Amino acid sequence: MKKFVLLYHGHHSPTPELEAAWNDWIQRRAASFVDVGNPFGPGRRITKDRTIELSLSSNPASGYSILKAEHIDAAEQILEGCPIIDSVTLYEALPT
């Protein structure tokens, strides 16, 4: 089984309906998640030359999750119906 990191993009204001939809979606896929993850707050992009402050509106990622699947196509299928996706970047986490 491989691990995949999901970086969520886009920001949704939390509402009771959205939280219920998210919790229901996660519950139905709980066996696939290693870490359900968290939303992101403001951050910083740090390079060797400078630091750039990132606000919630400028942040290229709004949260993360880690899941397990046999291959990237299976990981993508797990995301079907996710209620908070504007877009997701999906990375395979390579073993060290």
Topology:
Layout: E1 2-9, H1 16-28, E2 33-39, E3 43-46, E4 51-54, E5 63-69, H2 72-78, E6 87-93
Antiparallel strand pairs: 1-5, 1-6, 2-5, 3-4
Question: Keywords, please?
Answer:
96 residues; alpha+beta; Alpha-Beta Plaits; two-stranded antiparallel ribbon; 6 strands; 39% strand; flat
Task: Explain what you see.
By secondary structure, the protein is α+β, with helices and mostly antiparallel strands. It has a single domain, classed as Dimeric alpha+beta barrel (Alpha-Beta Plaits, 2-Layer Sandwich). Helices cover about 20% and strands about 40% of the residues. The protein has helices spanning about 15-30, 70-80; strands at about 1-10, 35-40, 45, 50-55, 65-70, 85-95. A four-stranded antiparallel sheet has the order 2-5-1-6. The chain is flat and about 40 Å long.
